[in-house]
Design brief:
This is DUF2057 domain-containing protein. Keywords: Signal. It comes from Shewanella chilikensis. The protein is of the alpha+beta class and 151 residues long. It has one domain. It is 27% helix and 35% strand. Strands 2, 3, 5, 6, 7 and 10 form a 6-stranded antiparallel sheet that branches. It has a 4-stranded mixed sheet with strand order 4-1-8-9, with no helix packed on it. A hairpin with a 2-residue loop joins strand 2 and strand 3. The chain is globular.
Length: 151
């Protein structure tokens, strides 16, 4: 009936080969997990959708983040949003590494605003070991780039 005949064994072999290629390509990625009040806007200049976890290839990356959280003084208070401008995280990841971004404890609106002015966070791997990373504001990033150009 059909001009194309393929045996079940050839189909299974082709399917297995395709699946192994697909799985191999994803097995080298590192995973970046975020707290609820951080959102990734872009990775290496490429916009991303808002998910809790993001896959990164091994190597050096610049991750654009945005902080946002709501603070209420009492139960009757509807709350006040604290939002940052873009924050930039530079880090180098290894293959198949699972990383967690950890913010300092920010219990008040004043602490959140202080964090936005002078951001600090910790990046840890699956064993809880700190991973070298730097976070900076947009102004800090531009000043750093200009300093590198002048060298």
């Amino acid at each position: 009936m059909s001009a194309y005949k393929i045996s079940a064994s050839r189909f299974s072999a082709a399917l297995l080969m395709f699946a192994s290629l697909f799985m191999a390509s994803g097995s080298f990625a590192a995973e970046l997990n975020l707290p609820d009040n951080l959102v990734i806007k872009a990775i290496d200049g490429q916009a991303v959708s808002n998910f809790d976890r993001h896959q990164l290839s091994a190597g050096k990356h610049i991750v654009e983040l945005k902080y946002r959280d709501i603070f209420a003084v009492n139960a009757d208070d509807s709350g006040s949003w604290v939002k940052s401008g873009p924050l930039y995280l530079t880090l180098t990841v290894a293959e198949q590494q699972s990383l967690q971004l950890q913010l300092p404890t920010l219990d008040t609106e004043a602490e959140a605003n202080a964090f936005i002015r002078s951001p600090e966070l910790k990046v840890v791997d699956e064993a809880g070991q700190a991973v070298p990373a730097e976070i900076m504001t947009h102004g800090d990033l531009m000043a750093d780039w200009l300093a590198q150009l002048r060298r």
